[in-house]
Amino acid sequence: MKDNNKIVYLDNAATTQVSDEVVALFVEIEKNNFANPNSIHALGVKNAKSVQIAKENILKSFRLNKHKVILTSSATEANNLAIKGYCLKYANRGKHIITTNVEHPSVLECFKQLKEQFDYNVTILEVDSKGCVSASQVKNEMSKDTILVSVMAVNNEIGSVNPINEIADVVHAYPKANLHVDTTQAIGKIDLDYSKIDMFVVSSHKIHGLKGSGALIYKSSLSFLPLLSGGGQEDGFRSSTVSVANASTIALAIKNALKEDRNAVNELKNKLVEGLKDIDGVELNSDENCSPYIVNFSLNKKKASVVVEDLSNKGIYVSSVSACNSKKEPYSYVVKALGKNDTLAHNTIRVSFSKNNTLEDVEIFLKELKNTLEAIR
Ligand code: PMP
pTM for the whole thing? Predict the structure, then answer.
């Protein structure tokens, strides 16, 4: 039986709990190293050096030597800068850009804006029944006008994993084209060769770091039209006073995420999937090739929103549609894109793990899900 005070937090794809290590580093820097890294006095110079070291550590963690880092407020901002900043900078090279139909809104909305307001020619690839696109789908759409391909590494709703290595090879056969990958849900969660990606993003709060902190990591040969103009920080690509604490804590969060042992989370996923298979009215949307950190399923007889609320009343926290989208869309466009019917697309539940979860959390979730499904109409 669940202890009434125990919280079972299974919404880690929405955000994770910040680690004690990150909090301690944040407090130390904000208290003791608060000077503006752009100030020319000794405290400013010292902090500028800390930011530089943090960026070097980020690149070292990803094993990169041809990339640079722009610190941003979020992955949303990093995606916007990578897509709009890059496309607007290189508009004279071509105006064809490619993405997929299950990207996060921070990617899809950029494509929409580029199409509607800047006249870019947009190709949107459709995922297969597992939520993936293939390298050959990308290849079929590439042309001499293509300047950008943007494909997410791990989908935030169902955890599907795209073949980024193969896609990179296809894109790089076209000298004017570059590959942007939304890696928000991938860092530390799947193996990826980051050196093959021209632009990718980090969201600190998804990896036990701070909210309001992100990064765009890009091949140093690339340039961007800045979205934020001002004092010229971040090589002129992103004006705004740089947060030393954000720089150092995102570097720490990335280092920890990339060395995370995924075996325990794999075990959680297997246990959850086995348990869900035994529950009547549940249809899995994530398969065995998906990220172990995300398990998505639909209810074909009950309303997911009612189930999520009932679980929440019991101290068990999961998502119905992704947190970023739940206010706007009453259904999951990702699950719909898998070819599922409207009932299933309206009634999805996402369970998402972090290293802090235990097998007991999964047991409690499965037991209480069964109770909830029996109790509600
Ligand atoms: N991309 C993906 C795949 C995400 O899951 C999210 C967060 N839900 C974002 C981008 C945006 O991240 P942030 O909250 O840092 O803006």
Answer: 0.96
